[in-house]
Structure formats: C-alpha cells, structure tokens
Amino acid sequence: MFTLRQKVILWAIYTRVFVLFVQAFVYFAIKQTDQITHEAHNNAKHNFTLEWVQVDASSHHNEKDVDPTFNLSDALFLLFGGLMPKHEREVQNNLHISNNGYTYEENLLYFPLYPLMVKGLSNSFNWIFRDMIYGFNVDSSSFPANPALILSSSILLNAIFFIFATDRLYYLSRKVLKDEYLAYKSALFFCINPASVLFLAPLTLTLLSAATFAAMASVESGMGLFTGTYLAMATAAQPSGILNLLMVLYSSMRHVSTQTILFVKHKKEKKKSKPAVPDNDYEQMLQTFTKIGLAAVLPGIWCIVASMAPFAAFQWFGFAAFCKLQKHEMGNFPEEVIEYGQIHNLTMPGQEDKPTWCFEDPPIPYIHVGGMPQFKEPFSHWVPEDWPHYIACTPAMLLILRQIGQFFKIHKKYCCRLGLVDNALLGMIKPKILPWNLTQALPREALIYLLQALLIILSTVCVTSLQGACRVIMATSPVLYWTVAL
To answer: Residue 314 and residue 239: Cα distance in Å, rounded?
Structure first.
C-alpha cells in the first residue's frame, strides 16, 4: 500500500514517461513540420533566432567510424527531437551554452546553472564511455556523439527536477492548505498541467519550479540555511527567481509583527497586575529583539544576499568576458562556432570592437542585451499574431483572478491587515471560517501566494508578455493547482 506522497512521486514518473513517448510519436509522425514552423515563425517575426551550433569534441567519437545511415545519436535526436524546436530561443541557447559555453552576446540572456548541470552530466557520460572504450575494447561508433549526450542529459535532468518539484509542491500544499487530500490533488494536477511538455524540454522552467517550491516549503517550515540555497538556485536558473524574495520579506514581517504584539500584550498585562519593573521590561525587550533577530532579520538578510548573489556574479562574468578579455586571453573556439558567428555577425568574447553596453554606466549586460523587462504603454505589446498564446493562457489567468476575488470576499478583514495581525494574539475572538468545500476559497495562509500570482498577472499589462507570465505562473505559483483542486 503506497502513501499519498509515494503515489505523487510515482504519478510524476508515469507522466514524464507518457509525455516523452507522446512527443516522440508526434515528432516522428510529422518530422518536417518543425522546419516549416521555424521558417514561418522567422518570416512572421522578421528577426533572427540563434540556433545550437553542435560541436562534438569528445575524444571517444570519430566521424570515420560512424555509420552514415543511422546510429545511436540519430536515435536519440529522433526520440527527443520534438523537445528542441528551432524557433524556441531558450532551448537553442541552453543547448548551445552546454555544448560551447557563452560564445555569443545573446547567450548572456540565459543564466548558467542549468547549462552547467547539463554539461557536467554529459561530461560524466563521456568519461564513462571513454573508460568503457579503453577498458573493455568497445567500438567507439556504438556510443552517441557529444551533442546527443547533451540533449539526453538535459531531458534526464528535467525529469529528475520535475519529480522533486512535485514532491515539494505536495509538501508545501500540506503546510498551507492543511489538507492532505487537497495537497494530493494539487500535485496530481501539477503533473498533468497543459504546460507539462515544457517541463521536459531543455528549458530552465523545471529547475526554477523545483528550487522555488523547495524554497517556499522551507520558508513555511522556518527560514534557514537551505532556504537561501534554494533561492540562490532559483535565481541562478532564471532571473524571475528573484520574485521569491516576496515570500522572505512577508515571512520576516510576520515574525516581527507577532513578536511585537506579544511584547505589547505582555507589557499591558503586567501593568494591570502590578507596577512595571524596569529590569524585567528590559529583559523582556531584549528577549523580543533576540527572537526577531534570529527568526526574521538574520535569515532574511541571508536569503536576500543568497538570492541576489547569482545575478550579480553572472553580470560580472558577462562584463569580464565581453568587455575586458582580449582575444589572446580567451580559449580557442571551435571552427563551427566562429564560422556561425561570422556569418550572422554575432558579437563574441575577445573581439576588438566591444559591445556598446561595455561603456554604459552601469555595464550590466542583462539590461542592455534585452533581458530586463521595460515598462511599455498598457497592452501595446499585445499583438494579433500572438492570439494562440492568448487563447492558451487566458483560462489559467481567469481561474487565478476568480480565486483572488473569492478569497478577498471571504477573508476581507484578513486581507486588509495583510495577514500580519493575528486576532488570537490580541485577545480577540477568532472569526469562524467556513470549510473550503462551501466557500471555494483558499485558507487565509495562502494570501501571500495569491499576491505573488496577482503581481505576475499585472506585469502582463505593461512589462512582460502573456506567454512569459503564464510560464512563470505554471512553474512558480501553486495557486493555480490549489484552485483547480478545490
């Protein structure tokens, strides 16, 4: 007999296998569609999409030994090919960085944690195959080339991250919803969400989701060392991971509010019973400040520093690589990478003509290359050509907005206090809350998660695209899965 947590993990494994085989079948059936879609996309957008420059630098592989008709590398690309569309810029850049490093200026839009993990795993496979070749005298042509290993490693890592994210979502849901059955249903809906295939593709969404849900669960259990570690991983995967600091700030504010209320309440009770004693008041104040410092201030500072450090470090790397280093200080790029950059006039590290943002103040590549969101006129970036994305994303947004309205209707006074003041601590009668199956509203503890989702939705008006916001919500907000589970 399996526990609910074990069932959730098994369901996550089953859905990954199912999605993998479905996309492989579809890709095999209509293999030429990807090229047609790619050309149509470029013609519609009138812009350049960088493609993965596949370089096989593995020592065990020799092109002369490869069967020109079909080999294991071809089989892997046929199995996973549907997960690497040529018009998906993030997929192409992640695979290119894993294969060749940060060779072009556009690569600086994509953060390094996921590509580094993919590169490390593929190098491990290469090392194992090299030992097998030299230790067991195995034919090198029977092993896949390095690009195929990179693609396979990215899929394997995302499958592992997805299972971990599902487990952390289940744990977080139990903490917040205080209902094991709702937590179970929320995790199941996460496994079959409409964007499920994106969590298997070589995107950073799965790593972002795993790190975010783990950080949220850690905050609910009490901020500590691991909380900052998860936050750092989320930011190192995607800059949108910085939004998780909202949870940290809110948790710190609640700790400060709770300790302050307890201190004031204790002082008032003391005055009613007997005259205040200065020494005891000072001792109580010192105890209050100590609790605030240990439970809110110090963990909060650690989480903020840990979350911002990957962003700052990566910007320094980009500045040093493209603005400071000279050509003789750089390693030799593969000929394929140099040729591709010259054909498409791409900026590469070590060039004499430095990018213009090198002379800006501050020289932050993410801002100037085009990654930093910019405020626009309301809905000016909503174009008719993106209507399929609007149709796909609108139901999820409407479900969340409906839940926010229902939540405010049921917990109006709690929302006005931002959940910082607990009536029970003030000696007031705690209002009776109807069960969720009657109100169809999330419990009061879900307030900060609703505010986070609302902030992401509002960003679609003037800042980001609806598709991008929907992806972030699917990966980092548990509200949608909680709402569907009600």
So the answer is: 11
How far is residue 70 from each of residues 20, 250, 273, measured CA to CA in Å?
A: 21, 56, 88
Nearest to 401 by CA among 474, 475, 485, 480: 480
- Residue 84 contacts residue 151 (beta carbons within 8 Å): yes
Q: How far apart are CA 235 and CA 113, in angstroms?
A: 9
Tokens 């949220």, residue located: 216
Contacts of 140 (CB under 8 A, 6+ apart): 60, 61, 62, 65, 133
**Six-digit token pair at 428?**
């007031």
Top-confidence range, 169-178, 362-371, 381-390, 440-449: 169-178
pTM of the model: 0.87
Contact 208, 238 (CB under 8 A): yes
- The Cα 121–Cα 313 span in angstroms is 23
Dist CA 14 CA 20 (whole Å): 10
Specify the residue for token string 């209507």. Answer: 387
DSSP 359: G
CA-closest candidate to residue 125, choices 153, 101, 90 = 153
Q: Where are the alpha helices (DSSP H) in 411-478?
A: 412-416, 436-439, 447-462, 466-476
Q: What are phi and psi of 355, to 5 degrees?
A: -60, 155
Token pair for 377: 């006129």
Structure letter (DSSP) for residue 83 = G
What DSSP designation does 198 have?
Answer: G
* b (16+ CB within 10 A) / e for 412-431: eebbeeebebbeeeeeeeee
Query: 118 and 150 in contact (C-beta within 8 Å)?
Result: yes
pLDDT tens column, 116-162 = 999 999 888 888 777 666 555 555 555 667 788 888 899 999 999 99
Terminal Cα-to-Cα distance of the chain (whole angstroms): 26
Locate the domains of the chain by residue range. Answer: 373-486
Model confidence pLDDT, tens digit, residues 360-376 = 888 888 888 875 565 56
How far is the C-alpha of 460 from the C-alpha of 131, rounded, in Å? Answer: 51
User: DSSP secondary structure string, 314-334?
Assistant: HHHHHHIIIII--GGGSPPPP
Give SS3 for 430: coil
